[in-house]
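Mods, move this if it's the wrong board.
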Amino acid sequence: MKLPMVQRMVWLTAATALLTALGIAPAGADGTAGTADGRQDAATGWQKVGGDARSGVSGIAYEGHAPHGAGVSALVVHDNKDTGQQRLSRITLGKDSDRVSPVTWDGPEPVDLEAVEAVPGQPSEYLALAGRGIVYHLEVTGSTAKVLDYAPLPAIGQGDNFESLALVSRDNHLAALWADRGAGRDRPATLYSASLSFDEWGQAQFGGVTHQAYRAAYPTDQETRHISDISVTDSGRIVVSSAADEGDDGPFESAVSEAGRVTVSGAGQVRVTLAASPTVLKTFPQHKIEGVECLPGTTEALLGTDDENLGGYVRTLPLCRN
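Not the wrong board. Structure tokens:
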């Protein structure tokens, strides 16, 4: 069961301090990898949570407090494509251990999951997004994720490849942001937005869709994915990750940037205003960030990487200013 909002914010403030004290997210650490045995490297702040291309973090969603209240629990998706491979896992960053446990997928098996997001106001419900634009509405209970419904995104453009999803709740109205990742200098990302609701069967229903082009300030080479994930702060700031790689063994590079703002009116109208020049908050050489999640009630961002053959890493950093 989720905590009430006030209790959650109180707990998150305490948890942020705890994580920093434990060395999980030391401010100012560089972007190099953690230790080879999967333990946390206090010099870099990255915690290794996967050792190969099948266990990287392609998307991340804050789930709640860890068991016994000492740490953070998050759901992560993996971009696996073959039958029987792991699609969803739970990462627990706690005082005494940092654990990764499998979550069983119960329902039609997706191909290439790239993003996951908690549904505001609906405890234990999530939306997961596959690269070609199929949205899966999930109910997560313990170690099982049951598919309630699935359907394609609206307004899918030619060649779109999706890696990001964010949900926003304002005055009992929901909105969704998602993006085609873009591809290098010739194809910027396309950031889509729409109001969101659910029908009686649990299928996601999108309102009128708007879209805008977005080009990352970093990285800027021909392999750049301009938006590899999206998160929104409590005040409506849009935080995005961008990433590039030259192959399954790297080298990788990525950045987290402030891209603009989103507002939702009292009538449910969604408005996205992108910055003329995105503000790069931090760069990360040697990692490909594909998951960014602003933790509610704090300035902390939970980051996850899919470093292909080198595995996956997570950490927190204060990148979500309000």
